[in-house]
Amino acid sequence: ISSKLPNVGITIFTKMSKMALEYGAINLSQGFPDFDVAPDLIDRVHHYMKSGMNQYAPMPGVPALREAIANKTEQCYGYKPNVDTEITVTCGAIEAIHSSISALVSAGEEVIIMDPAYDAYQPIIELQGAKAVRVPLTSAYAINWQSVAEAVTPQTKMILINSPHNPSGAIISEEDLAALEEITAGTEILVLSDEVYEHIVFDGEMHQSVFKSEKLRKRCVVTASFGKTFHATGWRMGYLIAPEVLTTEIRKVHQFNTFTIHTPTQYALADYLQNPATYEAVAKMYQQKRDYFLKAMKPSKFKPIPSNGTYFQLMDYSAISDKGDIEFAEWLTKEVGVAAIPTSVFYADGRDNKVLRFCFAKHEDTLKAAAEKLCAL
Ligand code: GLN
Description:
Layout: H1 12-23, E1 26-27, H2 39-50, H3 63-77, E2 87-91, H4 92-104, E3 110-115, H5 121-127, E4 131-136, H6 145-151, E5 156-162, H7 174-184, E6 190-194, H8 214-217, E7 220-225, H9 226-229, E8 237-241, H10 244-257, H11 263-272, H12 277-297, E9 303-305, E10 312-316, H13 325-336, E11 338-339, E12 341-342, E13 355-359, H14 364-375
Parallel strand pairs: 1-11, 3-4, 3-5, 5-6, 6-7
Antiparallel strand pairs: 2-8, 7-8, 9-10, 10-13, 12-13
Helix pairs in contact: 1-13, 2-11, 3-11, 4-5, 4-10, 12-14
This protein binds glutamine.
Glutamine (GLN) binds near residues 13, 30, 31 and 166.
Protein name: 2-keto-4-methylthiobutyrate aminotransferase apoenzyme
Pfam family, one: Aminotran_1_2
Keywords: Aminotransferase, Pyridoxal phosphate, Transferase
């Protein structure tokens, strides 16, 4: 049959994790922690399973969780979204992104995304018959707002930003929010802000959520992830926040897509979120891991590219090999025993910068063992 996504194969994350398993390599490729969820959170899930909370949740999510999300958002960013009309619990952030783009972007319209960008955005846009317009980030992975402004056309429906940024770990500043306000002022352009790593920001920097801008939040869908924050990527728990006019449309898709999300886990997260320390502790924990990994890698020939957020660290390997990054990542997995993600997959043109992405959401022992192998090169 003719493919709707002729240029899409199996994602690099699936490919590299499979290869890591096959060759017994230390897996620093796909982004997931190798340590467990907090026992008291697991206890809460059990508790609600045993108390009979095992049937369909309300379509937008259980009220207690939406209330907890509203309070958390207010506490973090000074804005309390409406519990009934603006918050929807989704199957991971990817369902939030998929349902939002499906509901809001039509065939023939354009969505501006950055280059490099997380691999899922462009195929989701193209499935709508819409066009992804790529705007290159600067060499420091910052957004070039002049180029964004130049990429806007009468067909531009949405601008998609992602901070902290996967794969680079770059974060946006207040000036970026101001630039986005200026570009969208007086237009109908929507913003999708993928903020799944909102709680993983380092060195005393603040996550600049679009919620901080009164102007932006009126035109903005924000997507977020419990999987990233609470080390539970397999639970597939995410959510989105958007103004009522947008949420109404997005829920039309959500209700016929995943419909509702795992009920007992929603109740458990609602309890767990009551204590802000649960998400406030995450940045410090990951900063320690980042610093541990960087220190362990210091004697190596890999050159780190500064990361301000996420649990990813980019490393330039050009002093070690002139292999292309996909070939090098495969070789590293098979011959050295460490799996990482080649970054060319995040570029529209597959550009090879000789840079790999390493996930440091791992036990120190895991990071140490990986660094020892990498330092031997
Ligand atoms: N977000 C994860 C990463 O960047 C991958 C998730 C997936 O495999 N789809 O590594």
